[in-house]
Amino acid sequence: MNDDPDSFDWSTWTPTEEATLLFAFDGGGRVLLIHKKRGLGKGKINGPGGRLEAGETPVQAAVRETREEVGNGVGRRQGAIKCR
């Protein structure tokens, strides 16, 4: 797979895997972002996330990926978690 997003024909692309992103906001209007080190979007800035593992819900995957990528867990959640 070519990781260069400019080489994709996005008009014909069909997803084959489920993945998640987590956007964590603090009370001061800041959002947690990471610098993507591998895979599609390498070198870009995004929220932590990745592919769902077998039996995982999108929320469980978002929490796990945040722990793996940031080295920190998601604390008490306030507000809604929206999965699309």
Structure notes:
With 84 residues, this protein is of the alpha+beta class. The chain has a domain of 54 residues. The strands form 2 sheets. A two-stranded antiparallel ribbon has the order 1-4. The chain has a two-stranded antiparallel sheet with strand order 2-3. The model has no long low-confidence stretch (mean pLDDT 78).
- Shape, per Cα inertia axes: globular
- What helical percentage do the residues reach? 10-25%
The main β sheet shows up as: 2 strands, antiparallel
Helix and strand run: EEEEH
Number of strands: 4
Mean pLDDT: 78
> Which secondary-structure class do the elements indicate?
alpha+beta
Report the uncertain regions: none
The number of helical elements comes to 1
User: What is the CA-based Rg, rounded?
Assistant: 14 Å
What's the N-to-C terminus distance? 25 Å
The order of strands across the largest sheet is 1-4
What is the beta-strand fraction? 5-15%
Structure described in brief:
With 84 residues, the chain is of the alpha+beta class. It has one helix spanning 58-70, and strands spanning 19-21, 34-35, 45-46, 49-51. 15% of the residues lie in helices and 12% in strands.
